[in-house]
Write a structure and sequence with these properties.
The chain has 429 residues and is mostly beta strands. It is 13% helix and 35% strand. The strands form six sheets. A six-stranded mixed sheet has the order 1-2-3-6-5-4. Strands 17, 19, 20, 23, 24 and 27 form a six-stranded mixed sheet that branches. Helix 1 packs across helix 2 and helix 1 packs across helix 3.
């Protein structure tokens, strides 16, 4: 592979190839001839136009055969695993200039003959052009181009009149007799160090090799609150239904991972009403460690089946919102005066969630005056807010707390239908 000087090195080698082809030829009728590698707009044209062959790199395109070699080059931690080559095809325009009749045509023929008789840049020529005693880039060496695995093949490209017209128009230069060529393939590769895997000494315990299993992983299609299909979130103490295919009770557990903290909690599962259903019960708010181990917000839920001496099988994740449970104080107030409101939240809030907490008193959103999460993990988080007197009119005001998009559930199911939870509703009279 070569380094970043490979493109310029190819141009220099082609220029040297054409120059060498003119040595020994009797060009006295034409005059002195120069070989250059300039943009066409930089070449003098008109009455004093020199006799010149110009090689112009007008396009660089990816090489399809090498494009996906050695990918990917980094792992999930952004550590370099390999140095994939940058594989390029170079497109050149060979143009001839002259101030006499037929001189430009003659020079173009000589240049085309040189490239036709040398269909590839061999390693000996590359080492001669790019190596000592006078390398073209001084202290920056491009000699590694001669050692790349692919040869540099030169192939003519016959452009249409429309393509040539667009090319010369884009170059903002006067059109001259020209022929296009493609050089393929140039491989540019970094020399940075990479990480490599250590050799395998044993293939698993006892060197018994990999374990193959014929069974598929459990498939989880739906997670919902068992209390009602219309509840969008679960709360501590709720029973969940896990619905899918390939679910079994033996050796299975439900794995909950919080989207913000990435903390994982595993709970045992029970059989559901159908073979396609499992049940899992979230710990109650009064259970030991429940307030600290769980956090309101977004969770992902998976079913994991563990079997003796075999790899665990895990389903794809599904989303579940864990809503906070609220205790509101006071539940009764007098109209027309500022109302200091205290709201206890179970489970406890994570410190990173404080900024995103939203508290609603009826239809009005209130800023939190203070959020306190005690050091004692058995104590809930407490929010303090003040309801302005202008909002304290006679009526019933459900209190709703939103944490990371998970809203507390302000309603409960009664015999005559759903109603606002009296433990989360302030009555103003």
């Amino acid at each position: 592979m070569s380094n970043a000087l490979a493109i310029a090195a190819v141009t220099a080698s082609l220029k040297d190839l054409i120059s060498d082809s003119l040595i020994g030829l009797d060009l006295s009728s034409i005059g002195s001839v120069a070989v250059s590698a300039l943009s066409p707009d930089r070449i003098l044209t008109g009455e004093n136009e020199p006799n010149q062959l110009n090689l112009f790199l007008y396009q660089v395109s990816p090489n399809i055969g090498w494009r996906n070699a050695a990918l990917p080059s980094r792992d999930g931690a952004s550590q370099r695993l390999s140095n994939p080559p940058l594989a390029l095809d170079l497109h050149y325009l060979l143009s001839a200039y002259g101030n006499q009749d037929l001189s430009a045509d003659a020079l173009l023929g000589l240049g085309m003959q040189a490239l036709h008789e040398t269909p590839a840049l061999d390693r000996e020529r590359l080492r001669s052009v790019l190596g000592p005693p006078t390398p073209p880039f001084g202290n920056f060496s491009a000699l590694s181009l001669a050692d790349q695995v692919e040869w540099l093949k030169i192939a003519p490209q016959f452009l249409t009149l429309e393509e040539l017209s667009k090319l010369w128009t884009a170059a903002q230069a006067r059109c001259r007799p020209s022929m296009a060529y493609q050089v393929s393939v140039v491989l540019i590769q970094a020399e940075a160090g990479t990480r490599g895997a250590l050799p395998v000494l044993r293939r698993g315990p006892g060197d018994r090799g990999p374990v193959a299993t014929a069974g598929a992983a459990p498939q989880l299609d739906r997670v919902r609150n068992a209390a009602s299909e219309f509840l969008r979130a679960a709360r501590l103490g709720d029973r969940l239904l896990l619905e899918g295919r390939g679910l079994q009770v033996a050796g299975s557990e439900a794995v909950f991972e919080h989207a913000r903290t990435h903390a994982q909690r595993s709970l045992p599962v029970q059989a559901g009403d159908t073979p396609q259903q499992l049940q899992v019960t979230l710990p109650a708010a009064g259970d030991a460690g429940a307030l600290a181990d769980w956090t309101p917000g977004l969770y992902t839920v998976r079913v994991r089946t563990v079997r003796p001496d075999l790899p665990a099988l895990t389903s794809a994740p599904l989303a579940l919102m864990l809503a906070p449970l609220l205790s509101v104080d006071p539940l009764a107030a007098a109209a027309g005066a500022d109302l200091p409101l205290s709201v206890e939240c179970r489970p406890r809030l994570h410190p990173d969630q404080h900024a995103g907490v939203r508290l609603r008193f009826g239809a009005n959103e209130l800023p939190a005056d203070a959020i306190v999460t005690p050091a004692d993990p058995a104590q809930p988080s407490t929010l303090q807010a003040t309801v302005p007197a202008a909002l304290v009119a006679a009526g019933r005001y459900p209190v709703v707390l939103s944490v990371d998009g998970a809203d507390s559930v302000p309603a409960v199911q009664a015999a005559d239908g759903a109603q606002f939870d009296p433990q989360q509703t302030v009555v103003v009279s």
